[in-house]
Amino acid sequence: MPAPVASAFPTVGVTTGSVSAPTAAPTDVPSPSPTLSAAAIIVAPGKLQASGVAPLRVGTHLTQGAATSPLAVWKADACAGTDVPGRWVGPFPEVFGPYSLWTDNSGELTRIDVWSTGPHLEGGIGIGSSLAELQSAQPDATLIASPAASGDMALWQINDANGIVVLEISNDEKVYQKPDGTILAMSILAAGDPHGFLDSHARSYHPAYGGEVCG
Question: Torsion over CA of 43, 49, 55 and 58, rounded to 10 degrees?
Answer without folding.
Answer: -10
